[in-house]
Predict the 3D structure of the following.
Amino acid sequence: MEEVRLEMVVPSWKLDAVVHAMKRSHPYDEVAYDVYNLSTPSASHGSGAIGELPREMPLSKFLAHLARTLHIPGLRFRGNLRARIKRVAACGGSGSGYLQAAIRHGADAFVTADVSYHVFQESDGRIALIDTGHFETEQPIVPHLVGYLKSQLARRRERVGVFPSNRMKNFVQYYIS
């Protein structure tokens, strides 16, 4: 039997499915293949999101909106309270490593967590940098993940229950004088 060599670029999130399909359809028991990680950033997949608010607002109002929406007693930020905010980048959890990407994409504000002093310094008036807390930035996605997982399992006719934890609480406390 003549052998054929195939080369393709596959997003990392699809690699397992592609390898499985290749092994399933290959005529031999043992498939010879190599995987080379290109580490090419994907334009449609990754950490964070960027979008626009329905209406531009001053940073002071945007901060109040975040505190109210995320149910937090306070937050850390660097920026001019009168600056106008329309385009917002966000990355749940420890996303401060994406500050330059948020600036490159023209965001007026970047909402994330676990921002160090030096990263606040790095923002240097180019963008409003807001640290709302690690737990606080990850929790809003939980109901959406539960819904997504339920729909995917139902589509595959899998009988598995998916429930959000009712015991997960933020163990970080705030002291506000």
